[in-house]
Amino acid sequence: MSPARRRAGAAAGVLWRPVAPMLAVSVDAVPEGPDLVYEPKWDGWRAIAFREADGVYLQSRAGRNLTPYFPDITRAVRALPPGVVLDGELVVWQRGRTNFALLQRRVTAGRGTLQLAARHPAHYVLFDLLADASGQLLLDTPLVERRAQLACLLADAPAQLTLTPQTDDMAEVGQWLTTWTAAGIEGVVIKRRAGRYTPGRRGWGKFRTRVTTEAIVGGVTGSISNPDTVLLGRFDRRGRLRYTGRTHPLGTPQRLELATLLSPLILPHWHAVGHPWPDPLPASWSGQFDRPEPLRYVQVQPTVVADIKVDTSFEHQRWRHRVQYARPRPDLSVYDVPLLLGEEENPFTMP
């Protein structure tokens, strides 16, 4: 359905799916103001739920149908009145924190989806109400009123439907950013009390919790003389360099500085085995699930250490989101870089 037709439907009081969810723009600091409220930024899958007359439809952020993969959530949403449209985040908890990998397994479980849902049930953490129980659109209703209606709606809802916390207290925000990261909270989302819901627009703010750490440069996209992004690694306990993530594109000063430190790979250094990572890099390694093409890159001598800023999304021994390159650390040896720990050990959560 075209965006123009969806806008026309909204103007007529009808919310046709797919709906483009309201989005957030990244900010470098948490703003303060009397009209602002804050919510945790969950590490899950954004989903809009339509409680229709004949059932439930779950839509992903990109407009795809998630309904077959979350029978536990569709069953919970079915307990709500027809006409309701909800916005929130799908999460799966394991050992006291969110587990993104278990969300991804829902898509590939096939006939095992019901068994997977029983072993690792999902929760739907809700933060907005787009249409009420009568089907009336609430897009132009202030956030504070939409939130109040959502709280009433969820008062007797199944436990898997949870209202996200919200606060205007900066002390509580600080607590989320320093202690809740261990549970999988990535940061905070900033919203205006009187804000309306604008589908597809970046009307909210988001601040990600990041910490600075070190990693080894194992390759670059672009060229050695003009690197665009950096491929990073760490040694595991057996001394093997393992791929751990990729940076955002470098700024021009960063490119020029890093280029002076990089050297082409010398095979004898690796006892004629070659680089420990494949070239091209598999799409599953680089996280390009929306564009699943292998990543071509230039392998370099793994002798350069870099300072990077990372968030809390560290799974399968890799940073799931791209990291921020800060600067090279010529004062450090590659053996000064922290070892890559096991799956159960995440050294990148805040203390």
Apparent shape: elongated
Rg over CA atoms, rounded to whole Å, is 23 Å
Q: Return the CATH class of the largest domain.
A: Alpha Beta
Total E-strand runs: 18
Mean pLDDT: 87
Compact description:
The chain has 351 residues and is of the alpha+beta class.
Write the layout of secondary structure elements.
Layout: H1 3-11, E1 23-26, E2 36-42, E3 45-52, E4 55-60, H2 71-77, E5 85-94, E6 97-98, H3 100-108, H4 113-119, E7 122-131, H5 143-153, E8 161-163, H6 170-179, E9 185-192, E10 202-208, E11 211-222, E12 227-235, E13 241-246, H7 252-259, H8 283-286, E14 298-299, E15 305-310, E16 314-315, E17 318-319, E18 324-328
Parallel strand pairs: 1-10, 7-8
Antiparallel strand pairs: 2-9, 3-4, 3-5, 5-6, 5-7, 9-10, 11-12, 11-14, 11-15, 12-13, 15-18, 16-17
Characterization of the model:
- The protein is α+β, with helices and mostly antiparallel strands and 351 residues long.
- The chain folds into 2 domains: 185 residues, DNA ligase/mRNA capping enzyme (D-amino Acid Aminotransferase, Chain A, domain 1, 2-Layer Sandwich), CATH 3.30.470.30; 126 residues, OB fold (Dihydrolipoamide Acetyltransferase, E2P) (Beta Barrel).
- Helix content is 19%, strand content 31%.
- The chain has 8 helices and 18 strands.
- Strands 3, 4, 5, 6, 7 and 8 form a 6-stranded mixed beta sheet that branches. Strands 11, 12, 13, 14, 15 and 18 form a 6-stranded antiparallel beta sheet that branches.
- Strand 7, helix 5 and strand 8 form a beta-alpha-beta unit.
- The longest helix has 11 residues.
- The C terminus is likely disordered.
